[in-house]
Design a protein that fits this description.
By secondary structure, the chain is α/β, with parallel strands linked by helices. The chain is built from 14 helices and 13 strands. Helix 12 links the parallel strand 10 and strand 11. The longest helix is centred in the first third of the chain and has 15 residues. It is globular, with a radius of gyration of 23 Å.
Length: 435
Amino acid sequence: MSSSEEGAAPAPAVRRAPESIAGLQEDYSNLCMEKSQKINLFISHILQEVDEKVKKGLEEEITLTIAGNNRLVPVERVTGEDFWILSRILKKHLYINGLDVRYNLLSDDGAYYAAKLLQKQLNLIYLNLMFNDIGPEGGKLIAKALHKNTTLKYLRMTGNKIENKGGMFFASMLQINSSLQKLDLSDCDLGMQSLIAFATVLTQNQAIKGIHLNRPILYGEQEESTVHLGYMLKENHCLVELHMCKHGIKNCGLQQLCNALYLNTTLRYLDVSCNKITCDGIEYLAEVLKSNTTLEVLDLSFNRIENAGANYLSETLTSHNRSLKALSVVSNNIEGEGLVALSKSMKTNPIFSNIYIWGNKFDEATCVAYSELIQMGCLKPDNTDVEPFVVDGHVHLSEVSNGLKKHYYWTPAYGEAYGPSSNAGFALTQVGQHI
């Protein structure tokens, strides 16, 4: 994603690879021979493709994507030793400003070289290390490298089991680093101690605009994470995105967050999907939305708000709120009454543009209501996850691949990977390049 440009700003100069420097593939092959390292044919293939783009002239800086879950070419997953060679050549090619090595086999050895890269490649603004078998020690190395790095804007550590120990090092890093804008530590086995540390640090850090703390390892039923993160939201005046998926949040925990949202004036994207929220919690949330004027994207997927919760939201969106743009209530045990009520709010609320409803209980009235919304132009086909079709004179709804973050864990083999229809949450709350 590219950041928005101000009307009068001059066009940035086109950056080109210096002619004196060999191509990425040639540099890679030469360094492999010099270090007696086996050439990884997958890396070589990707570097050749990038070299071909460079020869045509760079219109913008490049993200080098060497994803281990690529299904279009034979994949030889990147190891720590492969990454050592790769990191050496990237220091010479400064037009590479993003590196995506998701789903590979870097482990803590690769994390060591990733830390070295962060210390020496000062053009890198995006680094994706998700699902690379990096543990607490590797997390410690990367976090410490970010103490002095002033250029990286977005780091994805998703799925690396850095645990509570690694999480504490990242929390400590945020006390020092003032340039990182987005940090993804989802599925990292964080514990309550590190969640409290993040909540504490983010009351002071004024750089982080988005943080993913999904699926921590929590014990007990007291919902402490919502208490601490709720207090953080009262004090923080910078955070745009907060992701708290799979925190075990119940109605009491959501009430803690709602109390904070009365005071917070910056949060635009709240993700509380895959929790234990029912209609009673949604009553608190609907009340907040009557006065909150900043929240734009709300992800309630995979809870259990049912018809009563949908009706609370519908009443607020119809008569009061004029800031929320996108709502996901996927798989919430909502029946026709609640789904039709939400559809009616789209007719009267010109700001409410995106709704995702798949996985609920559709009746014919629901199918007709959403078909009419699309026909009337109140709901654009790209802004929902259902599509109407008619069989024997009856309207039905089928699922389409749109959503707030459909391509969070994977990207499609063909077509646009980061298009707004499949990643509406991030598109609507966009805060900068790659973010």
